[in-house]
Structure formats: C-alpha cells, structure tokens
Amino acid sequence: MDLTYFGHATFQIETGDHTLLFDPFFQDNPHTNVDPATLDPDFVLVSHAHFDHYADVEAFTGEDGPMMISNFEIISRIGNDYGHENVHPLNEGGTIDLDFGSVEATHARHTSSFPDGSYGGVPEGFVVDFGDQTVYYTGDTAPFVEMEWIGEAYDVDVMIAPVGDVVTMGVDGAIHAAEMVEPDLIIPVHYNTFPFIEVDLDDVQDSFEDAGFDLQIVDFDSKVSL
C-alpha cells in the first residue's frame, strides 16, 4: 500500500486495486505541482468543508467521477452544485463497507463551513480498515478522550494527524492523541502551508521520538510505502 502526500492535508492511498484521495486541495496549495486532472481516484473522502480541504472537489465530479464520501451536508452540496450523483453520506459514528474494506467516520473537534460561509456539517475523521492494514486520518482536530475508544476498537497501523497548531492540534496535542490511539506509525500533516501553522520539522521529529513514537515525515508530492 502506497501513500502520496500532496502537502497540507491532501493525500492519496493506493492499495493496488483501489485509490482513495483525501481532502482535495491543489490549485491554491503551495506544496504541490500536481494537476488534479491527472489523478484518477476511485473514492474521494472529505473531512470537512473548509476551503483548504474542499476547494478542488469539483475537479473530480462528473458522470464517471469517483464516489464522494463525506457528511450529509457536504455530499448534498456536491450533488446540488456539480450534479455529481456518485456520493455516499457518512456521518460521525457511521461505517460503510466498500470493496477494499470499511470506512468509519469519527469525531473531530473542529469547525466546518463552506467557502461561502454556509454550514458545512460536523467535521470528522476516518478510520479506513483495509483488512491487512488500518489507517486513521484524524482530520482537523484537537485531541479528544474518545480517541481511546479508537485505539481499543482498532489496531491502528498508521495515524495521519495535523501538527501545525493554531487551527488544529499542535505537536503536543498530536502526541497526546497518539498516546490514546497507540499507532505503529504517525504521519504529520497540516503544517507550513500558511504563516500561522509553520513548524520546525526537526523539532517535530525529535518531539515524537522523545515521546516514544515512530514518526515519518513525507516530502511534498512524494510517495512512500506503508
């Protein structure tokens, strides 16, 4: 299984048979040179409606476009605005079974509104169970005590979590989250996109290592094997 990180909170997981794209943000993303038109995901998962997670959803809509998975408000908006019919609602606490495994929508302690300011539903994270590996994308969040339940319910191989602080949890919060989830590997996201979420990656690496966790920093527009 491979993960490609496009910067900010946009990444893609390829299993060999299926491709999942998370939080499409390309055109205004300073970390990527990828044209979304060159990607061909089978599924697009949107954690919430903020522009830096939703802005390039339209690039994947159309008659033969991928299944869009998100909360009811977001998939309704996608259908209404772009006429995209291949959508699946998934609200917090719900699970759907798909060809590759399952996706559960988890709580995320954050806010959510569309770029025009309208209500974007409740933000969420996703636990993706591929059968042989489990990936937990926290979405934009602060740590919350129910993360302990996620760690109890799943043997999480990879936790993908924000570390940029200010509008999400920072390094200390992400370490606290990891203490509850107990993943084998952590991949940091949501940093160095805007001045107020700039971090020193050496400090991030050292902090996680000092806390006893394995952290892998993925270069922008790079692919790694999980």
Automatic annotation (TrEMBL):
InterPro entries found in the cross-reference section? Metallo-B-lactamas (IPR001279), RibonucZ/Hydroxyglut_hydro (IPR036866), UPF0173_UPF0282_UlaG_hydrolase (IPR050114)
**Membrane spanning residue stretches:** none
Taken from the record, one Pfam family name reads Lactamase_B_3
What's a Gene Ontology MF term here? Answer: hydrolase activity
Metallo-beta-lactamase domain ranges (all copies) = 7-190
Enumerate the SUPFAM superfamilies for this protein: Metallo-hydrolase/oxidoreductase
* Swiss-Prot/TrEMBL keywords: Hydrolase
- This protein's record includes keyword Hydrolase: yes
PANTHER family named in the record: UPF0173 METAL-DEPENDENT HYDROLASE MJ1163, UPF0173 METAL-DEPENDENT HYDROLASE MJ1163-RELATED
The identity of this protein, by name, is Metal-dependent hydrolase
